[in-house]
DNA sequence: CCGCATCCTTACCGATACTG
DNA sequence: CAGTATCGGTAAGGATGCGG
């Protein structure tokens, strides 16, 4: 694996490397979810809001704006009586969304193992308290 | 796309859905980078620290611990004079790391377009401050 | 060498209120 | 309906120092 093309000083992941930049872009609570939804077709603001449980209006607005800024999502306004705004994924955004499909598949097939491991770890922690603290 | 198996109320992404849980797991600054490095073979603590530019000792320690807790990374201690600790990716972690390869590829091939779009957006912003949208 | 504990500053993000 | 603006609590995370 070659990691990072802009590697200047021997580090696999320099701070300005494309992987780091892409990660900084998508590594938040909502970006991937929004991209995943828009992959299925254009949606309106409050439609997205309803679909994504727990997102605030502020974060949805903010995330959509940054996605539009980065050319991953497009925004179209319709001058209807109460104004209508439709968000759609761009071709560029679609290429990104595609790379994230395996992640969703992994989640559905492996997340149970993760949760199980986590529970086991926590159980051992409380069984052997003398190891780290208390005592 | 069917999105979420645990969808109870019509939402595509319920808060307890596997995709959300997996996202919460990897959506941080460092997890994906560490997984990517360990995919190439076991590494010691300070070795990882050197490879990942900008990570603090605290975050590396913290992230490794949570990865171990979730069964994605294993930790092995060698009782050498100054103690040696080796981290390795687990089979489960490897399945996750594999799903993230397309993301790194995407980053290297498309991040330039994103940055370009971002620059164009910011340029238009300052050119036409009174403008809201394009109808 | 590995990693935990503490302090402290920042930024995230939800709640609320208000505009077009 | 589709946002923006502001406030404030909280948690992420860097810096430093200590311990095994």
Order of helices and strands of chain A: HHEHHEEH
CATH class of chain A: Mainly Alpha
Question: Fraction of residues of chain A in helices?
Answer: 40-55%
Low-confidence stretches of chain A: 129-135
Adjacency order of strands in the biggest sheet of chain A: 1-3-2
Return Rg of chain A in Å: 20 Å
- The name CATH uses for the topology of chain A is Arc Repressor Mutant, subunit A
Which superfamily, in CATH terms, is the homologous superfamily of chain A?
Winged helix-like DNA-binding domain superfamily/Winged helix DNA-binding domain
Shape of chain A: globular
- CATH-scheme architecture of chain A: Orthogonal Bundle
Fold and architecture overview:
Chain A has helices at 18-26, 31-38, 45-51, 57-69, 91-127, and strands at residues 43-44, 73-78, 84-89. With 135 residues, the first copy, chain A, is mainly α. The first copy, chain A, has a single domain (19-127), classed as Arc Repressor Mutant, subunit A. A 3-stranded antiparallel sheet of chain A has the order 1-3-2. In chain A, a hairpin with a 5-residue loop joins strand 2 and strand 3. The model of chain A is unreliable at 129-135 (pLDDT under 50). The structure holds a DNA duplex (20 and 20 nucleotides).
Quick overview:
Two copies of one chain form a homodimer. Chain A has about 140 residues and is mainly α.
Keywords:
DNA-binding; disordered C terminus; homodimer; Arc Repressor Mutant, subunit A; mainly alpha; three-stranded antiparallel sheet; globular; 135 residues; 5 helices
């Amino acid at each position: 694996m070659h990691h990072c093309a802009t590697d200047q000083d021997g580090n696999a992941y320099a701070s300005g490397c494309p992987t780091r930049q892409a990660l900084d872009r998508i590594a938040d609570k909502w970006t991937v979810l929004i991209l995943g939804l828009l992959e299925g077709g254009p949606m309106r603001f409050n439609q997205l809001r309803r679909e994504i449980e727990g997102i605030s209006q502020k974060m949805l607005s903010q995330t959509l704006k940054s996605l539009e800024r980065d050319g991953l999502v497009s925004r179209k306004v319709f001058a209807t009586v109460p104004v209508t705004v439709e968000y759609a994924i761009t071709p560029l955004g679609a290429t990104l969304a595609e790379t994230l499909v395996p992640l969703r598949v992994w989640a559905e097939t492996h997340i149970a193992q993760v949760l199980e491991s986590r529970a086991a770890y926590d159980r051992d922690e409380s069984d052997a308290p003398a190891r780290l603290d208390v005592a």
